[in-house]
Structures
1.
Amino acid sequence: MQDKPKKKLEEMVRHQSLVAPRISLTHRRLNPLEKMGRNERCWCLSGKKFKHCHLIRETLEPINAFEQEQRMFAELREGYCSLPKTDGENPCSSTITKAHTIQKRGGLDTIAESNHVLTVKPLMKDLIQSSGNPKPRKIGLNNASVFPGFCSKHDSETFKPIEGKSLNLDTQSAFLFSYRAVAYERFSKEAEGRFIAIMKEVADRGQPFWKQAAMQSLLYDVSFGVDLGKREINRVKESFDRLLLDDSYEGFHYFAIRFDQVLPVVACCAFQPEFDLTGVRLQQLGQDKVELDNITITVTPFEGNTIAVLGWIGPENGPARSLSNSFLSIEKARIADALIRLLFIHSDNIFLNPTWWDDLPERNKVALSNMTRSGTLARERTASEYTNTSLQLSSAAAIETVTG
């Protein structure tokens, strides 16, 4: 890796979402009605007649939280190959594989203990027992960071350049890290959408009308947000597909960091950056008719050092570049801390070394756990989370950066 000239922060262009009008939600609210004509379309907007939907919902057998969780897991097992189809050329193999978003050998296993790492994705029993404040839990290496998003042939062929013991970090490898992150996020959003659709049908069974109204209204709002996310990630995935098929990297940019040791975390994610690491707002989510910048981050060890690769397709001087450039405003000994905060804020596809987590001060654990709920109905995302330099999280120092 060799450093290239870096864009100055003052050259960055103010994103249009910062001045665009908010999406209007007033005409999208549900209007729950306890009494309707039997043959009228149900108030929940299922498209079904009232007599076949919420007229009888209170009489149905309730579904418990653990059944809901099993339905969610079932959706996550429904796989497909994410590689774009090319009119019969290079067809898929018959097997959809459990593809690792972070390589197992030399990646996940580097931070594992007894073949296990920690995940921040809770099980339902953990949520219930902790009153909504679950701790990271153990997960085996074979199940960590996997999703059924590629056939076995295309998983091995496509990502071969970034799956070995060593890595030539260039534009091709940065693009492949980003492509895999985008494929994972699209798969996750689609599975989430299918799960929400199922929950609309079953979550309020056996409940009185006021609970039905509250649950359906919540699911409707969540579904609206998921649909926005799906449209956005599909747009991004199409852009990556075009470059992959054209064997071109035009419009793709990246920023990479190499550390002097292995960090206690690995991750793979894609998101829309809202703030940079100095607390400057980059984009405003939920604005009307505005395309947002997306960025991917992959963090994984190679040859005894962790690398972090940020990548995106879009403007050279937009929010994604502003976020990556903001790493350069931080002293090298604190860049790892900033990176770990960023991952906890934006990704649930992050995995931790168990001893590192156990040894953290309790205040750091609480702060990081709160960050996993950032940007949800439970917790608003704020600039202070990005700039919380009081959290000492790693002794690693950045020793090299590259801009592409």
Note: The longest helix spans residues 209-246.
2.
Amino acid sequence: MISICIPIYNFHVVDLIITIINQGEESKKPYEVICIDDGSNKETLKLNAEINSHNKVKYLILKKNIGRSKIRNLFLENANYENLLFIDCDCSIQSENFLENYFEQLDNAVVYGGRKHHYNPPKNKNKKLRWLYGIKREDQNLNYRVKNPYHCFRSNNFLIKRAILSQIRFNEKIETYGHEDTLLSLELKENKIAIFQINNPVFHEGIEDSSIFLEKTKSAIKNLVFLEKNTLNTSSIKLIKTYHVINKLKLTWLIFPLSKPISNILERQLLSSRPSLKIFDLYKLIYFLREKQNV
């Protein structure tokens, strides 16, 4: 009854697949695992070759990277069941009842299980910013998610009816990293399709170096500018709301000329061993302002 969909890009997923298969077999319920590799490097393909040995797994390898939106839509062509469970490849499953918890939610159109990060900080100081952001901003408790179901939606761990994803697909105009799930949640809200929140998190294992995380953040902000210009009402997004307050106060003309040198100073702090999320918020706001000027 569930097609478990795992898009892969440069990450070792064998342990995740084995965990899912073990829980699937124990459940005695119909399931399948579909893995689509989105142009990973040779080392990743070698590490993940074991996937082919599992008869419950359909493993496809794309020669060329097609992006986060297109690859998720591609599962519609390859899944056999009406319930699609998307799990990011850089996650681990800690709960023994993870899959069963989703089997119990099949009456709901869209279900989000949540995300967690390991409590202990990484030993590598270059990963501190991404871990801190995960712990403080992404690890939202169930009560908060229930009150803010669309705002808290992420594509890392969610169940959706095939018919709904066929109707409201990931927007393939978003080809780079970031906010493809934001747009999906906005469109679900626009179409009055509820997102049901449950306590069934995956743990995020793919903690990038701070420099890579900042580059991904820039990519996500560029996509956010695109969303504001071309899609649905984005006024509920905090970064956009803050920008409009500044713009209304006519302060953008003051900030913009200084935006590049300020960004360089902020970036040095964020790449340090003691990054600040308040500095990170300011960094994102300034970069958003710069991108808005380029539109």
Note: The chain has two domains: 2-114+152-205, 213-294.
3.
Amino acid sequence: MRLKPKSWPSMFGGVLLLCLVPPGTAAESGPAKNLRFSVAHMDRSVDPKTDFFKFAAGTWIKQNPVPGDKSRWSGFEELQERNWELVREILELSASASEKSRRGKLVGALYRSAMDTQRIDALGFRPIQADLQRIEHLRSHAQLWRLLGRLHLENWNAAFSPGVSPDAKKSTHYAFRIWQGGLGLPDRDYYLAEGFASQREGYERHVARMLRMAGDNSGAAEAKAKSILALEAALAKASKTRVELRDTEANYNKFPVREWGGRFPSAAWKDYFAELGLARMDSLIVGQPKFFEAMASEMGARPLEEWKSYLRWHVIRSAAPYLHREAEEASFEFYGTALRGQPRQEPRWQRAARVLDQSVGEAVGAIYVEKHFPPAARVRMKELIQDLRAVFQDRLGKLDWMSAETRARGLAKFDRFTQKIGHPEKFKTYEGLRVKTDDYVGNIRRAAALESKRQLGRVGKAVDRSEWHMTPQTVNAYFNPLQNEIVFPAAILQPPFFDLAADDAVNYGAIGVVIGHEITHGYDDQGRKFDADGNLKDWWTQDDAREFEARAGKLVKQYGDYEALPGLKVNGRLTLGENIADLGGTSIAFEAMQRALARDPAKRKRVDGFTPEQRFFLSLSQLWRVNWREAELRRRIVVDPHSPAQFRAVGPHVNLQEFYDAFQIKEGDTMWRPVESRAKIW
């Protein structure tokens, strides 16, 4: 529950990564062996020329149904589950009486508060009762705006989303920004599209149920639920689509504070900013001005009582997962089961671990790194990144479709590319955070407020380039366009993404593609609009930009033709950036593998009957092995900028001649894609 950069601009690259650990370390024992690339995962009864994904991972798919406490199950989740077990050991040891360090005691106290269900159940709604009373006592819209500021300080979601991030046109300094938001359903489409009518009805019932639980009588709860849904539908109608949000220039609108406040006489922005400690701020960045115009209009048109009901609901909604069992289970029944198809919750300790990752993640991460990230891992990862960088740089310097002028600027940007591996050099200390073992919700709120105040205090100041936006224990990686950097947390460097026991082909097809993916994000449909300094600045000639769009258009068409469920296709424009990165990462990693094999010809041999080229593509497809619950897949199609994993497992391949050569795929085979339809960008 922290003020943090939202999806503008998209900071994180692909969900692709895990942990690089040498044999013999703790992170390489036991279950890790089951995460590796394996021919046992393949289904050799399937012809690779017909369905390469099932050929590569069909047996795994048959043998690994989605567990009851998950909405999706994949190689990524397998590793993530194993990593949570490592985190659990840290939390339980930190919570023990033997823990002596300040960091460990902080982590342990918060974990104990999360696990004290007897105390949490006894408190009921008391942890948020004061908030509900403040809402009830509101007498004016000015008071409502001040309360919004207070709620946002503790990261309760309501009305819109504030944040602090580097200014996209002055990336050396932090700026305050506001973004559309305030919805209780996953996306605007859930309010506006005919296909989500049942979800809207379920949401209205859920809102009424939670309001009754918090003390409203049935009639009042149902009436309020209807007004809340109507208000949110109005906000949804004013919201941009997720595709529109990908237009970085259109979603950057800088205003002097005085001018912005003057646009909305009914909106008490001055009071809101003062509540956040920003009374002297001179400018802000507005993502979607028309959304805020509509929001201000709704505030003026709707009775104050409707907005009070809306705020009451969003406080309850935000807090419910951390309250007593009845509230927690009701929240999960809607958000977990109804919207994602997940039959049961994850175990209590795992839910607590997720909260600690959000609240004091770097404190947990510092301990994680000590136990599970040896220095040799960082050294090897640097070597691999350099390998991939060399390939991309050579390719960029030789692109035949780009003018010399644009190419020179692209190379200048690449020269400024930086990387982070494993963990921050200096971890956050959470100095001043008061953690009480009998106040779980209070602990979450105090941690959120501490982080929010830290970020708000930086508005207008120089950017800290050493800061990380993921914790070391996060199984992922990202590209940050505002700092022109790629970042790989420690937890991404393990099988199935990286395995020192595997041959080069398997590793280049996994972690190599991940590295290439993140590098390519610097030149995808969004990343290409940022210059070497991380500023939103056009450095392309018009002709080159048109050529890029034409080439990218082939990927829009390709992925837009993939049908995830009957009648439900992938959104090729929403997923374009990730698809460009997947294609670039795959192509670059394949060439890097060939260079590595040329340096050491003895490694060019068949393993398990497959050539290095074949194992490269098999490794990549196995990386994306997956099973879905239908509701979750449907949700992801609407909200996720990544294509579903089963399409990432073959989408890049069919654009590369090397894939066809490796498996002797020819015109007429199902996996064949006509040459003129294949995309080639980087």
Note: The chain has a mean pLDDT of 94.
